[in-house]
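Researcher: Re-running this chain for the archive, since the previous output was lost when a drive failed. Same request as before.
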Amino acid sequence: MNGNNRKNYIKMRSIARRISSDWNFRLFRNFILIDIIFVIAKIYIWRIVTEAGLMGYNLSEFWNIRLTGNFEYSKNVSPSEFIDTFCYVIPDVKEKIHAGSVLIETSATTGVMMISEFLIFMSGCINGGKRVRRKLEPLNQLATTAQMISTANFEIDKFHDLENALEKIDTENTDCMVSTGNTEIQGIENAINNLIKRMRNSYIQQARFVSDASHELRTPIAVIQGYANMLSRWGKDDEKILDESITAIQSESESMNKLVEQLLFLARGDNGKNQLTIEKFDLNYMINEIYDEYQMVDTDHQYILKINHDKPIYAYGDYAMLKQTARILVDNAIKYTPAGNEIIVSSGLDDTHIPCFDVQDTGIGITSEDIPKVFERFYRADDARNRKTGGTGLGLSIARWIVDKHEGYFKLASCIDAGTKFTVCLPKIHKENNDEQLIDENKG
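Model: Regenerated structure tokens:
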């Protein structure tokens, strides 16, 4: 224990002794007051009960009873004779009532109380200082730490080392971290390194997003530019080239428009500008609408609907956005399911009565290595296959954003050459509504 700590300890002991002494004095005073009140109350109640029994008073009128009796005793006698002569005399009753027993009982009870109070008082005198010091220990540690901080002599060289390490960071080297070798500022170094790591990850994601978006836009622009040049050279008089060019330009323009719309949706989502309109709706009705729509627009696949028409499945969410999620999943199933195969859409409740809907195909499936990455923006599991099937690589990213905003989650199961099943699980209820009410409705 150094000099400052010893001084603080001695000061704390002095304060603890003063607090303990003050507490013990107050305790002693309260004990005396309790004893006096007990003796007075005991004798007063005995007098009331005695006079009520002799005079025929009703104890229910306790506060209206007027006491008329007095105690009488002989003076200058021995204690045993004093108890024998101690009586209670009521003017309207000629007989004296012996009161020695109540005197003995009151004295004995008071004595027991005083002994107990004395033991408590002595315990407070002996151990009170220790208890107070234990209570004051956190404050003493806080004061000691504050004093150490206020009087600490920081070595400025340590911070110069940290500044030099920060200046030497190579922005192009992704593995470069701050390191001074000084264990005293290791915590600061770790915090800075974690911040640098998060900034680099964010930069890498942003750079990848821009690169992928540029790549996706470059192809349709190149196609449009090529057909435009071909039209300028030969297509004005060649009807076949003219029709082919117009068709290709229209197709690529639609692809570009779809890509730009998806990019704008994700950008608005990242900026918090896509607002949800939460409402209660029947999930079965939404899935039935999806089934009817794709029955008309896609005649190359067999669609199977699995819902209970007699029992609605209630959920809370933005109906339009959740329906967009279902469309994205069905479009994805169409791309990777051979013509003539089945696509199954369904809705229901899981084992915990959470509303959910499924889109299951019988297509080429997804490898286990690609499953964790399918929701990444512009992710391509197979570039050649994606060029054949079309798409922008943003559909599942948009679907995940929508489901995340509903505080829901995806379940994904897939087997190569057997098919893929996407399950969207929605929260049992929105925060502003009663959870148990919706569960009961779905159970019923």
